[in-house]
Design brief:
Strand content: 15-25%
Structural class: alpha+beta
Shape: elongated
Oligomer: single chain
Strand order of the largest sheet: 1-11-12-13-16-10-9-4
CATH class of the largest domain: Alpha Beta
Number of helices: 13
CATH topology of the largest domain: BirA Bifunctional Protein, domain 2
Distance between the termini: 53 Å
Number of domains: 2
Helix content: 40-55%
CATH superfamily of the largest domain: Bira Bifunctional Protein, Domain 2
RNA sequence: GGAGGGCUCGCAUAGUGGCCGAGUGCACCGGUCUUGAAAACCGGCAAACGAAAGUUUCGUGGGUUCAAAUCCCACGCCCUCCGCCA
């Protein structure tokens, strides 16, 4: 949720931001109108309530004869107060529900446009030229005994898979390497709950447009998270953080669950797009003035990871129309996938400024008062896609796969052999 | 699944309808004293909104009442015991 005071003072900025995203700018005027009415109703209520409170004190102090007269007034006043209170409540709800529809205000530097209007910031590494026909990760996964999608679908349906043998070991190595690097730069490792309550889901903004991609367990009214961003962000829900502790950084390792509704026919083969996968996610609570720098740092740590995996990639500045509603800017890293002859998203980092924290009521306190923190998130490693990138980029003619140096000590070898 | 107890300002607790936004102890902050510290003593000390007056907040939501931390209902969470499972 954006700052309603900011909206009052800069409606044009918010309108422009909504337009830039391809979203409805008319909401701005609805909010302005209902907020105005809300403030009037609030004032009306407060004045009546003040009167009631002071009258109430008189009643308490009055003698028995005086009391009856006072009670007459009190009763009529009480019904007025109740009426004013209901009106205030309705207008507050209306204003909030309208304001919640507004997305975060775009960073002016974010490229405007639709999905394809991203800006490439840089290319790192050169896609390899093969002197044999490169196999895709599905074939390699079979040869190495690393990925079993057939049994995955038998047991759990489409977009399901088993990681076995080398595949399972590769996950452990990737996670260990990721956590070790995160520790080096000051992250606190976290294993969060993946089953969360509505408040956590709502607060992180996943029950809006993204709701259809979330698994909901109706009987218990809990949700399976699509990313550990949810429990990490909600970790400090309703808390005031000491300013000197900022930035507070967590590296969460968890399973992630996604319904992938509306992606029929997209990436149906292999493990690029699946219902369940494990991920190490970086999350930072920081001072709003520091958010841009922190965003760059998260991106750098993502690049460091890709560099260590020795995989060619490019960094893109995601276009406004493709940003999540919480993000004011987003950088994706896309790894080169040889058999697709394309760069495909493997990590993503978003600056949510104070948008998410306002919903979750997470603040910091300094000499001037209590203000909303900024939150940022970034993928350190999403396992299946990283496995795809490693297998495909580091394969040999016989189907064996060379292990990046950074992972060798975790695996005790330098190559995955055929089984 | 069954029975009971609890949820109050950082912590512990007092508070059974008006004098309670709320007492006490500890912690914390400032001061006096001290060579310095401790102790003692004095003062301060919950939060949000608001320009202010003021309003709101005693787990959450609803209700009763002129008036609710206090009475009623529902829900959430914590604890104890029993059962069940490990």
């Amino acid at each position: 949720m954006i700052d309603i005071k900011f909206l009052r003072e800069n409606p044009d900025v918010v309108r422009a931001s909504q337009k830039g995203r391809g979203e409805d700018a008319a909401i701005v005027d609805l909010v302005l109108k209902s907020d105005e009415a809300r403030r009037l109703a609030l004032n009306e209520f407060e004045v009546l309530r003040a009167e009631q409170n002071s009258l109430s004190k008189l009643v308490a102090a009055a003698s028995n004869q005086e009391r009856n007269g006072l009670l007459e007034n009190s009763k009529t006043l009480a019904s007025k107060v109740k009426e004013a209170d209901i009106k205030r409540g309705e207008l507050e709800e209306l204003t909030k529900s309208q304001a919640m529809q507004l997305s975060n205000i775009l960073d002016p530097a974010a490229p405007i446009g639709k999905e394809e209007d991203f800006v490439v910031i840089e290319h790192v590494g050169t896609p390899r030229t093969f002197d044999f026909e490169a196999k895709d990760h599905i074939e390699l996964g079979k040869l190495l005994g690393a990925i079993d999608t057939e049994r995955g679908t038998k047991v759990a349906g489409s977009r399901s898979y088993y990681l076995t043998g080398a595949g399972a070991m590769l996950e452990f190595a990737l996670v260990n390497y990721a956590i070790a690097s995160a520790l080096k730069v000051g992250f606190t490792p976290v294993i969060p709950p993946v089953l969360v309550n509505p408040a956590a889901m709502e607060g992180t903004g996943f029950l809006g447009q993204a709701a259809e991609n979330v698994y909901h367990l109706e009987k218990d009214d809990v949700y399976l998270v699509g990313t550990s961003e949810v429990p990490l962000a909600a970790f400090h829900m309703d808390e005031v953080l000491p300013v000197e502790k900022l930035p507070i950084r967590y590296a969460g390792y968890s399973s992630c669950f996604r319904r992938e509704a509306g992606t029929y026919g997209k990436d149906t083969r292999g493990i690029i797009r699946v219902h369940q996968f494990d991920k190490v996610e970086m999350f930072s609570f920081c001072h709003p003035d520091q958010a841009k720098e922190e965003h760059k740092r998260l991106l750098q740590w993502e690049k460091d990871f890709l560099n260590a995996m020795e995989i060619p990639y490019r960094v893109i500045d995601v276009a406004s129309g493709e940003l999540g509603s919480s993000a004011n800017r987003k950088f994706d890293i896309e790894a080169w996938m040889p058999t697709q002859n394309a760069y495909r998203e493997v990590t993503s980092t978003s600056n949510c400024t104070d948008f998410q924290a306002r919903r979750l009521n997470i603040r910091y306190k300094d000499a001037e008062g209590t203000k909303t923190v900024a939150t940022l998130n970034g993928t350190l490693v999403a396992i299946p896609r990283m496995i795809v990138a490693i297998l495909e980029n580091h394969q040999n003619a016989d189907g064996s796969v060379n292990i990046p140096k950074a992972l060798q000590s975790f695996l005790g070898k330098d190559r995955f052999e055929l089984v």
